[in-house]
Amino acid sequence: MDWTAYVDGYCERLAPGFWAEPLNAVSNLSFLVATVATWRLAGRSAHPRITRTLSVLLGLIFLASSAFHTLATRWAGAADTGFILVFVLFYAAAFTRLFLDVRWRYAWLAAPAFLAVTVAFGLLGIGGTYLPALIGLFVFAGLLAASRRPEIRRWWPRFAVTGGVFGASLALRTADHSVCGSFPPGTHFLWHLLNGLVLYLVSAAAALAPPPPRTSG
To answer: Does the structure show a pLDDT above 60 at 215?
Structure first.
């Protein structure tokens, strides 16, 4: 496979060129804003290392997505998808540790479990790569709503609302190809804007989560 091959996958891009997707490129700033805002939360977080790790992963998403929508190559597209997946897998483990009070040695198992679900959805051709993440947000909301700890239970609306925002974001991403004729810029840039908000909301939730009653492991 030629990893430097040109990729044209969006309404806005009509030809090769660094600035052929101006809206898609500039809207990546939402990820940079999320990166900086999350990093700033580390100072008042009970989980500074997790918060800074999330911030670094957000920064990598910003860089990879910016590269993809300016260089439009296969390697940049793979980096874009890959860093989003790394963020989601790390977040699955972090959520399990922070909100479900599972020791790290077991919380990490949430990452391969989520990856297996994602692969299964892909093999079955159900909803693409991002549907498992959408479902996961509502599963997180349900788990939090069922928690016996009030300080944990209060977070469930955050994840439910975030799931709704991500659903709208995913719909806009999916609609990009179908609106090219009536709206040449497409809707992918709106996916970036809303997705930056989604990633910040879940990162902030992790940063501001209360310390688990059991801190070992």
So the answer is: no
